[in-house]
Request: fold
Amino acid sequence: MRKVLNLSLAVIAASALLTSCNCFSKMMKKTAQGTTATCAPELVTLKGDNAVTTITVNIPAKAFHKYGVLKVTPVIVSLIDGTEYAGEPRFFQGEKVQDNYTVVPFSGGTVTMDVAIPYNPSMRLSQLVLKAEAKCLKRGNKIKNFTPYETPIYVTNGVSSLQLMADNYAKVAIAPDAFQRVTNISETAKIMFTINQSNVRSSQLSKEDIKALEDFIIANSGDAKKKVGDVYTQAYASPDGPLALNDRLSKDRGTSTHKAMSQKFKKDKVPANTKFDINAMGEDWEGFKELVEKSDIPDKALILQVLAMQKDPQVRDREIKNMSVAFKVLAEKILPELRRSKMTVNVQVEGLTDAELKEAVATDINKLNVEEMLFAATLYNDNATKAKIYKAAAEKYNCYRGYNNLGVVLANQGDYAAAKAMFLKAASLNSTDPYVINNLGVVALAEGKKADAAKFFAASSIPEAKYNQGLVELANGNYAAAARTLDGYNQALAELLNGNVAKAKQQLAGMNTWRANYVKAVIAAREGDANALVSNLKAAIAQNPEAAELAATDVNFYNYFEHAQFVEIVKVKVKMKN
Reply:
């Protein structure tokens, strides 16, 4: 592959056209043959949205006339359809020229040209050439115009569009359900006691919350899907008075509660297997603190300060009683609420089995609640049933997750327009959900709106968004950033594009997709390993016949376009003109 540019030919030819000045023939007469150019990367390469390379020109001494000006325009010429794509021109001037161009000393030197030309698919099989135009100054005055050299100067081949070999399937995300196979429901009731007493008064047993507790136990007993727990009882004393007395009161209140409630349960035909779990909790300082915080009693802040600073319950009791006005209010409003037994009954409820959920989906999906619907969808692999379930959840419950997940199904089917409508509906119901935000980014990326997609992915906290941001970085040519967030094949491709060939080869070694095999063939071509090139390319073409068409116009295989085995497997003989 030729990488050397002899600028002297362009300049000498241009000087012949300038009848008013022969400065170019003078400046190139003896040493122009030593002027060379190289480029790096040696193939023009797609990076982000542009075809890029850097040309370095080495100009020997006395080659550039002091009054000479040269305009050089990089041009990519498609060998597919002949279209020319011009980049930004660079201007060079001799040291006597009074202008703002890059100065090339008469003593020689090195100049560089950064090439960045917006990419077009017809560039994938092309050549980079330079088109030169020249002019001279005569007695310090500019001549009219540049005069072009009609023959373009070949620099190198291009464009390596390996970046486009990314698997750009962005990850849409299902918003999770909150379905629980086993749920807990509970009911509570309280028995209140008078100061320093532990007997259960009959008035306490006739309260509504006691009846509700009994009804709860009865209603949930005898059901195979429901397991009624013990009557978990916590007996307390208010934190005033001697500590030993309060500990005894707490224990006795638990015992009397158990006895009284057991008798009542028997009378009211509460299932006989109902058990009690009695716990004497002692002085209820936590309850005391909670009630004080919610109150507006005098010296509230001072009382809370005592609780924070004093850990000894007897010191606390003494300090608070010294606040005579405040303690009077405490004795009337707070302390009586702490002399109690609290009973709690938990019931474990087993939800529908997978088989029952599927039966409901088939017969009467609307009898399921929203969490059951969302979970039921995960039991199916076919998109039609998933879509049916998510549609039902969305429409019956106006559920943003239903709309979002229906959009995911549509996106997986390739219908991004319909998916977008669902994601937008979901966003109208919940604009901050990270799953919805990520999926809007996926749609934006599919529409080619990389900047919008990046904003969505940055605003989402889920792992899929982090991966998808890596796809944006890859498409923008930020390969190091892409490699940090991608995984699998795309990460290997990003490493290769970032120059980490050994790491890319290691990652690709265990992969057997058509894309992975194709990229392995490209690496082999660059390393001059014809056998590996052929074997990997054969595998890629067997997996995806379109790989042959790609290879036939892939500049990475330029040195093998005449190779017999390459021609045999690609089925197309390609020639590039220099």
